[in-house]
Amino acid sequence: MALSFLHRDRSVAPPGYSRWLIPPAALCVHLCIGEAYAFSVFNLPMTKLIGITTHAPNDWKLTELGWIFSIAIFFLGASAALLGRWVEEGGPRRAMFTAALCWSGGFFVAAIGVYLHNLWIVYLGYGVLGGIGLGIGYISPVSTLIRWFPDRPGMATGMAIMGFGGGAFIAAPLSVWLMSKFSTPSHVGVAETFIAMGIIYLCFMMVGAAIVRVPPPGWQPAGYVAPVQPQRLVTTRDVFVYDALKTPQFWLVWLVLCLNVTAGIGVLGQASAMCQEMFHHRITAVAASGLIGLFSLFNMGGRYFWSSISDFIGRKNTYFVFFALGAFLYALVPHSGAVRSVALFVFCYAVIFSMYGGGFATVPAYLRDLFGTRYVGAIHGMLLTAWSMAGILGPVLVNYIRQYNVTHGVPAAQAYNVTMYVMAFLLVIGFVANVLIRPVAERYYIGETEPQGVGRRVMAER
Amino acid sequence: MANDRGPRATHNALKLALAWGFVGIPLVWGVVQTLVNAIKAFH
Question: pTM higher than 0.90, yes or no?
């Protein structure tokens, strides 16, 4: 009873409520959970919790700490897939509230783990609990934004998902600043920083949960007229969440997202080493870190830019651009190394990273076009398993191909050439998968008189 | 009703400014920090 204010019915917007309050509500959550991309700033300090200035024998190793992020990303995908329907049916406020508790709770438990120097508690805190917060938080505002912005669904979801890319820009300097404030000559200050960040994120995300509203039934923006001529790939009906899994369209979009992310995430992790090796003596380690910051800005900006463009040129055409232009640019990267053109290299990577981010931001609207609005958040949650798969595939491909080349005598400057061609080939496969996406078959749509959700079956099975 | 529209519009504008400022200011601060660090790195 005490938590009845979280119920969907209690968060229906009153008359006169501005829909432009929804993007900041979504950003309150996404800017916080986007911290995950900046977690690496804790890695080095956490290897010196005992030694303080140097790594002591009992200190944690970098390889052990790497698992914290991996566990969190795994639980992001798993919770988004398993809890998507719960998020969808309970409404955005309950989901954002839960995400805030899990995400900040993850920091608090991780702080206990750091304080007790028990890595398993950190895995459980930031990895498991925080990862669940990531998954619920990531999908919580998606369908609400799409309902409020039927005229610009790409732009609306792009704004929120841009926040996930932008969260690291806030978290990285904030974490470093907090650690500098809490550290003493005999103490690194990681646990206190975790507690401070947990409190900040809890407050920030609760503001999002407080201001988010769902539109009243039948609401449409003033002056909005739904297209009279239905577009071929844009449905006005809905597919039930688990029925979407039975359609080839879901798995083709899954492949499209997986391949786009595999190519991007693979080079994202290696971009610093890659530019230093390709332009030996021209790009230093410090300059490379600056370049990575620049690429991250393109990753964030691309999320808003490409998803907004998709409202005008269509989702399918937007992915055609990602795959065609992406394949060309990946194939061009070895040429930039051969002619020693840093400018060409930076240009290629900036566009590639903008399209990597754009792929994440455009996919919710693609799902809405294909499967309708009602269960888009839950379907999006299940699609995020493609991200988890790409998170394994991308780095493995890049690292192993490079290592194979180096051990077979290929010079370091050319060790990434084959990798780039493999990534370009993956994007060609993605292009083909995108070509194959057709409208969902009639039998998968929910009938006009059917109740929502529970007990639904595909019409053909009745 | 028409008289109510003015205060309501002002109230809405204020809420929008507060909400966007709440998320926009930290985001812009973070982006500026990143750009400053990137420029420093190139020097």
Answer: no
